[in-house]
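Entry 14. Structure prediction run on the chain below.
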Amino acid sequence: NRYGRTPEAKRRYGYQWRQIRAMFLTANPLCEMCRREGRYTTATEVHHVKPLADGGTNDFDNLMALCKPCHSRITAATVNQQG
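Output returned:
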């Protein structure tokens, strides 16, 4: 289990999520945070603005296209706020 996800969480990230993720990255190929700072970086990850565990959805308006470093920063900040 590469991400330390529970069995319930793993079900949320199955085939359907991979399809949504691929469509979202095709439609949004650049990292949103980098673009705000004037940089053009390829997005490789999709972030849920409101996490699925907190009632978020896979709707495009709840997703952000990010590069790995930006996604790691957001995840670390979120974990620090919760803990």
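The first helix runs from residue 7 to 12.
Filed with the rest of this week's runs.
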